[in-house]
Design a protein that fits this description.
three-stranded parallel sheet; globular; 5 strands; about 300 residues; mainly alpha; 2 domains; Glycerol uptake facilitator protein
Length: about 300
């Protein structure tokens, strides 16, 4: 490796710096510096402390705002669909699904670089189970996500000149809905972690949005797949609402789906490391080689300078 070369190793790479070189290791990389080299290690696979996360309050703010926007999109587009396509249930569902899929894609891009873009307690706790997020932080994410979804539902009501809070009377608790929520949540979690393990986190916002949009139609429950949004949707007696009596069943199914997803991920990806889990839904760790406040844009490997012989 030439003198004074600057080399950055991608995720999981092993990089060795020559004399006078500056070497930066990517997430999970193993980095060795030669004499006089400036070596910066990437995030270790044991717990993600090699790279700094955003301050907890910033991550919580991102999760609150993202959850609020998500609920506003889901509830608001449902209200609009009812008004613009009255009586056409299939068209109303299509409009609601399309808005939700597109909105989720954009919202993850908006806030994912700060908190990962979870907006879902099941995602956060499964992430903690794989070591990508501390259990303490997952515990903080939960009430913030729920509060954000409630706030978003209230905001959607107000934007359409409805009472701020109108408790839904739409009952959804049936065995078919219960099974649907298990399947919807299982699929969502597997999509997220499969992309992280295979180094395709850049595709996660689009993949998550597409999956939820499709699941609106292949599940009878219209794929809530999120306990926080389930609670939030209680507060709007509109197209996207859910009666309080149906909420416990939905949340139980979503938790069951998340637990099954953990088993499936362990079976499919036995080498999933905390470093991989720490990058869901999108990478959100500050790269120590970049200026403060700059974050990695994806989990793909990058080698910014080619290796060469001395001189």
């Amino acid at each position: 490796m030439g003198a004074k070369a600057r080399v950055t190793g991608g995720p999981g790479s092993r990089v060795t710096g020559g004399p006078g070189s500056r070497v930066t290791g990517g997430p999970g990389s193993r980095v060795t510096g030669g004499p006089g080299s400036g070596v910066t290690g990437g995030r270790a696979r044991g717990g993600g402390r090699g790279v700094s996360r955003a301050a907890l309050w910033r991550r919580l703010l991102a999760e609150f705002l993202g959850s609020a926007f998500l609920a506003a999109v889901v509830v608001g587009s449902g209200i609009a669909a009812q008004r613009y396509s009255p009586g056409a249930t299939g068209l109303e569902l299509l409009e609601n699904a399309a808005a939700t899929a597109a909105g989720l894609f954009v919202i993850i891009l908006m806030f994912g670089a700060v908190s990962g873009g979870h907006f879902n307690p099941v995602v956060s706790f499964v992430d903690a189970a794989f070591g990508g997020l501390s259990w303490r932080d997952a515990g903080w994410y939960l009430p913030v996500q729920v509060a954000g979804c409630i706030s978003g539902a209230v905001l959607a009501n107000l934007m359409f000149a409805l009472p701020a809070v109108s408790v839904s009377a739409k009952h959804r608790a049936t065995p078919a809905h219960f099974l649907s929520e298990i399947v919807a949540t299982l699929g969502l979690i597997v999509v997220i972690f499969a992309l992280a393990r295979s180094g395709r986190s850049r595709s996660a916002p689009a993949a998550v949005g597409a999956y939820i949009g499709a699941a609106y139609f292949f599940t009878s429950s219209t794929s809530f797949a999120n306990p926080a949004i389930t609670v939030g949707r209680m507060f709007s007696d509109t197209f996207a609402g859910i009666a309080p009596a149906s909420v416990p069943s939905f949340i139980a199914a979503e938790i069951a789906g998340g637990a099954l997803a953990v088993l499936v991920i362990w079976a499919l990806y036995p080498r999933l490391a905390p470093a991989d889990a720490a990058e869901i839904i999108v990478p959100h760790h500050q790269d120590p080689a970049e200026p403060a406040g700059r974050t990695a844009s994806d989990g793909a490997s990058a080698l910014h300078a080619p290796a060469s012989g001395p001189g």
